[in-house]
Amino acid sequence: MAVDKTDKGRLDASVRRVSANSPKEDSGNISEKRGKSGPEGVKISPERLKRLHDARKSAWKKMEPFRQNMIESTKQLVGRNYSEDGADIEVPVNMVDLLYTTYVAQLAPRVPRAMVTTEIPDLKGVANDFELALNHQVEQMGLEGTLRQAAANALFGIGVVKVGLASSEEIEIDGSMHDPGQAFVDVVDLHDLVFDMEARRWDQISFIGDRYTLPLEFLKESEEFDKSVTKRLGRDDPDLRGGGNSEGDDKHIGEVSRGKPKEKGSLYDEVEVWDIWLPYEGVVVTVAGQQEDIAPLRVVQWEGPTGGPYHMLRFQEVPGQVMPMPPVGHLIELHKLMNSIWRKLNRQARRQKTYYTYHGTASRDAAAARDASDGELVRLDSAQPPMEVSLRGPDPTLVSLVSMARDLFSYLAGNLDTIGGLGPSAETATQDRMISQSASKKMNAMIHQMVAFTQNIMQDIGLYIWADPIVETRLSDRVPGTDLEIPVTWSPETREGTFPEYDISVDPYSMADRTPGSELQKITVFMQQYLLPAMPFMAQQGMGVDWEALFRLIAKYSDMRDLDTIIQLQGEPPAADAPEAVGTESGPAVTHRINERINRPGATQEGKGDAMRRALSGENMQPAEADQLVRPVG
After folding, report:
1. Would you say residue 24 has pLDDT above 60?
2. Choice among 55-64, 238-247, 261-270 with the minimum mean pLDDT
3. How many angstroms separate the CA atoms of 39 and 45, rounded?
4. Of 77, 503, 99, the residue nearest 315 (C-alpha)
């Protein structure tokens, strides 16, 4: 599936870097092997083409249950109030949304930063410039958003991106543009993806491809495709797009918001195009998905990164299977159970009411009771006064069950409350810290997979940047510890050595969630644990603290814009005869500190839920247990 059905998956045949079977030291060479009918020596026979179409359609059919599961989970994510094609019924407590936002915030919170190193001393300066150019390219292409989309797809199905070079001809596809000749990284949705489902491992697949749409007029005029083939193309039927399904009943995830494509909804006549990478042959075949009787539009020798153009993100691999088990798949049924109970509790709450009955001969007594004020004496003439009748409200057993299901959901998701910082999970700070560290193990494993996935993408981008024959990027490198910046130019003339002599990795801390509050907390901890206790020793060695810089940093992270009105900055301090060491005449050398521990009662979400369950079921509770209902969580 073409990344976002845009040009995102389109492979350019004019510039390729390295053959899959070439030795590593040849990485970075540029090759231009291509003719109107494809590169030299690369041909696809009609029999081979038919087998390729058959294999594609067979794999597409086998992937249908996974696509439908992803659509169903996505509908639960958006609920009923998103579009007319969202969830069929109400989703009052959206645990899928909570899981999605919490996990994605942890997996792809910031722009990743590459680190380029080399073991050759003479190339370390070039490695630094290469690192600047690579990180600049990553920021320019918006890789952060792409990684976030890939992580989201992996939570619901499988995360796949396609890395390549944009065509030399600029074309807008489904609203996305790529700069000609520039590297791109695009998300490939599961509903535009097909690969060999018979393989047991990812490195054993015999083909993988993605689809996208192109205007028919562009295909016929483009020099990127064989014009003797494209002139035979006709427009596609929008209702038949997919894996060759003649009934047209395949659903696309985009229909959750956009609805089913209609003939009048497109500005141009379009053709569904598939790029199929064949790892064993080392070629990329471009075919028209619906028009199978037409020869390939393009056949090119793959000379890019050895792993091919596609990268897969799988958070939980299934033994002997290529398709992973998505995290949402384990929890979607529990989410549905919770919301089913909540809908039933809602109906019970709406039915709950209190009313009064009276006999027909006691209408005067009923009216007198209705109009009486509080504490007023009412005369009743009938022997049977009005009676109060109450209809039951929410069932306490169901309240207990939904509370237990909520706790179970958080538990199976790896202590979701702790991961998302929604509140403490234990009664004491020590217990909560232990739970937080344990909960982070599952998330850390997913983050490690995300970092490895990102590193593979970075290496591909680095290869394309290294091999670019014409790029010239002007950058600046800041001198550590100063405000000075040195101009740097990255171009083919400034490169030295070969690409394999450089190692590209991802700084794992660059992908960690860093907020102004977390940075301020780091400064506070550093001051309390290291700076203040070490000041006497710093004074003995002639070291000091730039308090102005420290206060400005604190004001920056705490958004305190009126720092100058609180602290008067008077320039250079007055000269002194001799520096006065901290802890000598100015104060006692030995101090006495008293640590007083104060226990304040708190409450956890689980404790409050259990107290509510017991209260509704009429169980006896100790006063301290009942107090949890009114205590804040924390």
Report:
1. no
2. 238-247
3. 15
4. 99
Element spanning 391, H or E: strand 387-391
Contact (Cβ atoms closer than 8 angstroms) between residue 105 and residue 513:
yes
Residues 297, 219 contacting (CB under 8 angstroms)? yes
- For tokens 């999970």, name the residue: 425
Q: Which two tokens stand for residue 380?
A: 């009743």
**Could you tell me the pLDDT band of residue 562, with boundaries at 50, 70 and 90?**
confident
Largest Cα–Cα separation, the chain: 110
Q: What is the pTM of this model?
A: 0.74
Reported as half-sphere exposure (CB side, CA atoms, 13 A), residue 619 has a value of: 14
Q: 342: Cβ–Cβ under 8 A, 6 or more apart, which residues?
A: 92, 93, 402
Q: Which two tokens stand for residue 354?
A: 């209190």
Q: Which residue has the tokens 């670019």?
A: 468
DSSP-assigned states of every residue in 182-224:
-EEEEEE-GGGEEE-TT-SSGGG-S-EEEEEEEEHHHHHH-TT
Q: Which residue has the higher pLDDT, 39 or 305?
A: 305
Tokens of 418: 């702790």
Could you read off the pLDDT of 123-150 as tens digits, one per residue?
Answer: 999 999 999 999 999 998 889 999 999 9
Three-state SS at 432: helix
Burial class (CB in 10 A: 0-12, 13-18, 19+), 341: buried
Which pair of structure tokens corresponds to residue 214?
């192109």
> In angstroms, what CA-CA distances link 568 with 327, 552, 563?
54, 12, 9
Question: Which tokens go with 525?
Answer: 């901890």
- State mean pLDDT over 83-100: 89
**DSSP helix/strand/coil, 630:** coil
Cβ neighbourhood burial of 56 (10 Å; 0-12, 13-18, 19+):
buried
Tokens of 23: 């030795």
